[in-house]
Amino acid sequence: MLTHLVSLLVLSVTLVFAIKTSASIGESASFLEFIPAIILIAYLEDRTPALAATILMVAVGLWARGLDQISNDDWARAILLLVSGGVIAITFHRLRKDLHEVADARLAAVEATESRYRWAFERAAMGFANSNEKGELLQFNRRLCDMTGYKEEELARLQLNTLVHPDDRDALARLLAGLGKDAASFGSEVRLLRKDGTAFWARLTLSSSVPDGVLTESIFVVVDDISERRAADEALRAQKEWLDLALSAGRLATWRIDLKEGIVTGSGTFWDILGLPPAASRPLEELAAVVHPADWPKLAASRKLEPVTNYDVEIRVRRPDGHIRWVALRGREDKHDNHPQRLGVAADLTERRQTTLLRAAAKKRERIMLEQRHRFSNLFPVITALVKMVSVPDDNIAKYKETLIDRIRALEATHLLLSAKGNQSAMLHDLVVQELQPYMGTRDIAVSGPSVSMSGGAAESFAMIVHELTTNSMKHGALGDSKGRIEVNWTSEGAGSDVVFEWLESGRRRTSNVVRHGFGSMIIGVDGAPLVGHSPKLEMSDHGLRYSLKLSRKEIGL
User: Fold this and answer.
1) What is the pLDDT of residues 170-192, one digit of tens each?
2) 314 phi and psi, to 5 degrees?
3) Mean pLDDT of the 72-100 span
4) HSE-up of residue 452 (Cα within 13 Å, Cβ side)
5) Do 117 and 111 touch, CB atoms closer than 8 A?
6) Is the separation of the CB atoms in 464 and 533 below 8 Å?
7) Residue 410 pLDDT level (bands cut at 50, 70, 90)
């Protein structure tokens, strides 16, 4: 309506001005004074009013000159004004139409965008809402209603603060306060209250533009229900605590070695077992300072790994306090992101190994005591046999006593050798001769063989075998027979080959050929493996005995 009044006013003023100008100027007046008015009216009105105003201006202009005084130039100017006014009106009409089309297209795009936004807003999997700076809910979607259990009209009367659990409202206040700073959005995990009073965990995100540092009136609120994730996190945390407790109770630790990067990660117990302070990770080479050099290749080898293979090694660790600990590393070798790695659990085996060593020592002690009892039980029959073997030369009691004492001393030397610690090496020949020394001169005994040195432990065990053979021969074989003969020899085919030991007796045996099973049989290997050596063979007959034994050079310390 206002545009019409302005157009009429412009038209009236223009016509009055044209009439007065024509009256005062006369024929020299042109129609150009109408052009600005036509442009203004075409801008304010549509095409038809602009054309009508142009025709009216031409008619008034011709009338003002007098119908009988109109010249050809006036007609030309009038026609030119009509054409110009029509062009101006059509041009403005076309521009207005184009602008309307552009505006309609943009409006349609805006409406489509708004429609998509509203569709997404209403059907989103997360809760959306708009709130003002006072926390009043201005707009919200259906998902937020479903989360909270409120109807739309009920939720519209609430404030955002009332939906937050009382214990988490301080977090909401911090979020609102943070929006007034540089950041445009803030988020926090809080508990929200449903209509029935139950609570659920949600990720609450507030966002807003901050022009000139002033909080805007509209705040966009995003609510994401994370109750399931929180429950899963709590279950995972509880499971991890239980696993850590179980591992700690069992003195077990977790570890992982990235062989490509050379990085070791482990739990606190793992570093404690190694005697190192806790750390998130360490270079693999740093462990070389505590791992025994002989065991380092087990830990540091970086060969190509087959997919998912078991890994089980034991290493020795020298802790900074000087103690040596045995550590078992059990797990898997695998590839992760094309990185070969080892991962698993570690266990401190030191106490278990110490217990095993103590048990082994106790068992060895028990075996030694059993052997000593056996040897002691055999001692008196041997002494009795020695007394019987030594005859009284020419009824010389002193000579008889001297000979008997020599034999007993030789027997004592052998027993002292067997009772001593086997920490010194001995010659095989000396061990045999020392055992048979009490019977030299009274029996036919031959000892032969190359020079063979034996380490302390092997020498002690071998001396026990020779002692058992000698005792058995004294009781039942050649040494108990004045016509008996004993031949002892050993041979070796060369460096690296076994030493073959043989004990041969000839003469009538005083017992049956049945092998008796006891501690003595166990020593020489009739019942099981011998104390030293392998492949024992024992052959007995009424006229003799043959015993052979192979001694590996590695076992006897050569």
Assistant:
1) 888 887 777 765 556 778 889 99
2) -125, 130
3) 82
4) 31
5) no
6) no
7) low
Q: Yes or no: say if 328 and 349 are a contact pair by the CB < 8 Å rule.
A: yes
Q: In sequence order, what are the residues at sequence separation of 6 or more whose Cβ sits closer than 8 angstroms to the Cβ of residue 357? A: none
Distance CA(184)–CA(274), nearest Å, equals 49
Of the segments 3-12, 184-193, 307-316, which one has the largest average pLDDT value?
184-193
Decide: residue 125, CB within 10 A, 0-12 exposed, 13-18 middle, 19+ buried. Answer: exposed
Angle at 314 between CA 312 and CA 319, to 5 degrees: 140
φ, ψ at 504 (rounded to 5°): -120, 130
Q: What is the pTM of this model?
A: 0.38
Q: How far from the centroid of its chain's Cα atoms is residue 14's Cα? A: 91
Checking if the pLDDT of 214 tops 50, the result is no
Handedness of CA 280, 284, 286, 289 (dihedral sign): positive
Q: Strands of 180-297 (E only): list them.
A: 185-193, 199-207, 219-225, 252-258, 263-266, 282-283
Provide DSSP, 452-473.
-EE-HHHHHHHHHHHHHHHHHH
Task: Give which of 476, 488, 359, 387 is closest to 435, Cα–Cα.
Answer: 488
Distance between CA 367 and CA 73 in Å, rounded? Answer: 150
d(CA 267, CA 252) in angstroms, rounded, equals 10
Buried b / exposed e across 342-375, counting CB within 10 Å, b at 16+? bbbbbbbbbeebeeeeeeeeeeeeeeeeebeebb
Give pLDDT tens digits for 17-65. Answer: 767 666 554 444 556 677 787 788 777 777 788 788 888 887 877 777 6
